[in-house]
Amino acid sequence: MRQPLFKLKRLLQWYRRHRRDLPWRRTRDPYRIWVSEVMLQQTQAATVIPYYHRFLKCFPAVHALSRARPDRLMKLWEGLGYYARARNLHAAAKQIMTLHGGRIPRRPEVFSTLPGAGPYTTAAVLSIAFGAPMAAVDGNVKRVVARLYDIGRPILPNDKEITGIAQAVLEDGTDRQVTNAGDFNQAMMELGARICTPRRPACPRCPLRSDCRAFRAGTVLERPVSTPRAARPHLRVVAGVVKKNGRVLIGRRPDRGLLGGLWEFPGGKIEAGETPQQALRRELREELCVDTRVSPMAAAVRHAYTHFSVTLSGHLCIIRRGRLHPTVHSRLRWVKPAKLDSVAMPEANRKLLRELRLRNLI
DNA sequence: TAGCCGTGGGG
DNA sequence: TCCCCAAGGCT
């Protein structure tokens, strides 16, 4: 420890007084806490709340989740993003049923073998549900500690110094019986989410400001030190609404990779020198092995992903020749337009669908 | 290990 | 409009 410990009692007192009444704070069920922690990965609490309720209504316990049908699971996760989290949660539930008698493992070295359980999630679930003395280091904790100690270097993904400080403070607090591990971890994260925010920190209301080196040095807004990011490329993409007998064609994306397991309108990237219509005819030939007639653009939307952004133009299509044979999708389905709401689709496809419906094109 | 993996909100 | 960031993990 490079510095005397900050005043833990003030932090805990502040937490008891100002903590938000979040649904996963009303239970001690390790399964529910685990589900919440997975949903909260890279996702703000306010976004998670409705998903959390719907998910647990459908899958109230590990055994129910272990028997979930993938399409139903993905529909519940639709819009929450990072869909591998849902697939990992499902695989982990099966693993818990077959290997651990249906009970959430309490030992860190066992829990962390579950798919999707990294250092943060393992520490968070086991400390909150079982009181395990493990510091849960998320983005909030990194920011809070970087400011408290005025750390003038970039924080690494798995930062030993940050983890060491958080762990030492936690152990000091539990030794002196000032706190339990779960409350400490949640208090640190709550402080980061409510007071020690990235852009506009509320230092005057911070219970730790008298211990905060960055506050004293006037470097709060420069901590943590940020590293430059790569620019996001912009892609032009086409999607085909292939119609036949009052139904439209959708394909299920492969389980691995971007938007894995979600259903979409077939299509793909526009290559250099191609018109959107040419690109779509080529994509449908490559993806579905059929020759099509493609309309001019019917609607277009913009969407931003983490590493790139797209403009997605939608076109109405009919099949002229050939028998459907998917080369990239795991399955194809003809569905009535109204049924598109019951399958899990990427947000960009949802936007396009809304535009097409506004124009009565689907 | 650094790039990949979604979406919504805020400034 | 654009950029940053959010209760991270996997490969």
Structural account:
With 362 residues, the protein is of the alpha+beta class. It folds into two domains: 215 residues, Hypothetical protein, domain 2 (Endonuclease III, domain 1, Orthogonal Bundle), CATH 1.10.340.30; 124 residues, Nucleoside Triphosphate Pyrophosphohydrolase. Helix content is 41%, strand content 15%. Strands 1, 2, 3, 4, 5, 6 and 7 form a seven-stranded mixed sheet that branches. The longest helix is centred in the first third of the chain and has 16 residues. It is elongated and about 75 Å long. It starts with 7 loop residues before the first helix and ends with a helix. It binds a DNA duplex (11 and 11 nucleotides) through helix 2, helix 3, helix 6, helix 8 and helix 9.
Question: Keywords, please?
Answer:
single chain, 362 residues, alpha+beta, Endonuclease III, domain 1, Nucleoside Triphosphate Pyrophosphohydrolase, 2 domains, 14 helices, 7 strands, elongated, DNA-binding
In the CATH hierarchy, the third-tier topology of the largest domain is known as Endonuclease III, domain 1
Number of DSSP E strands: 7
Question: What is the C-alpha radius of gyration, as a whole number of Å?
Answer: 24 Å
Q: Tell me the number of helical segments per DSSP (H or I, 4 or more residues long).
A: 14
Q: Which architecture of the largest domain per CATH?
A: Orthogonal Bundle
CATH class of the largest domain: Mainly Alpha
Task: Please state the overall shape, judged from the principal axes of the Cα atoms.
Answer: elongated
* Average pLDDT over all residues: 95
Number of domains: 2
Sheet/helix structural class: alpha+beta
Please provide the ordered H/E string of secondary-structure elements: HHHHHHHHHHHHEEEEHEEEH
Provide the helix percentage: 40-55%
Low-pLDDT runs of 5+ residues are: none
Distance between the termini: 63 Å
